[in-house]
Amino acid sequence: VHIKKQHEYLLKRPKLGKIFVSLTQVKKRGVALYIRDNIMAKQIYKDEDGRILMVEIQDNDQKILLVAIYAPNDNQETFYRKLHVQMTKLDYTNIIMMGDWNGIVDVKLDYKTSTKTKKIKKILPKTFFQMVEELNLKDIWRERNTNEKQYIFYSNRHLSWSRIDMVWISGELNFSVQDIDIGTSIWADHNPITMVWKGQKKRNRWTLNNVILKEDKFKSRMEEELTFFFKENKKEETSLQNTWDTMKAYTRGIIID
């Protein structure tokens, strides 16, 4: 989420539900989960690096562990080993693990580049594959799109597309998923993944009501909020792309609220 720990209040949006976060003192990482108010939920674990967040929810008397991940680019062997150890300690049967894994599973299906050098995106380490095998986790989108080539993230630096955001779920939960789609991004550099639970109505994507752009009260508030945002986000070495994407997410949250 690229928000400092002391600015957690900026993420609170009552209309989105209860919020759970794992944040640090730097804006280069951080994960958050919004859970609807009518769903029983409690935090189970979060790390000190703003990369792992675990929340237990209940669905029809069934306990499910939601795990939000923002994996590092470096030292992935160690990261996934520690994650595996933590998951083993908790010993949940039903798991949904999702987020930015910063690596791919299959070079032929999950990566595309037009550059002559064709630098290959990093394959996830052995410790990752050991973890998902022992926990019986399945890449739910790939299970239903065996040979499809659809991507999540575009790298301006490497001029490449890759599928680094994924949802891995316990094999037993596969039958509870009605649908899963990779959408088209309109406000970030990652395309969204939408997963619909059986019995749940598919919700329409949020769009901006352009009428409010003419309201003086709205314009004044947005000017105040964005002045504050850019003042806070000029203090650290964060890439322009990350600052831009975070600003769009921040703005969207204010408008929805």
UniProtKB/TrEMBL annotation:
Keywords: Hydrolase, Magnesium, Metal-binding. SUPFAM superfamilies: DNase I-like (SSF56219). InterPro entries: AP_endonuc_1 (IPR004808), Endo/exonu/phosph_ase_sf (IPR036691). One of its GO terms (cellular component) is nucleus. GO terms for molecular function: DNA-(apurinic or apyrimidinic site) endonuclease activity; double-stranded DNA 3'-5' DNA exonuclease activity; metal ion binding; phosphoric diester hydrolase activity. One of its GO terms (biological process) is base-excision repair. Its cofactor is Mg(2+). PANTHER family: AP ENDONUCLEASE, DNA-(APURINIC OR APYRIMIDINIC SITE) ENDONUCLEASE 2. This is Endonuclease/exonuclease/phosphatase domain-containing protein. The lineage of its organism: Eukaryota, Metazoa, Chordata, Craniata, Vertebrata.
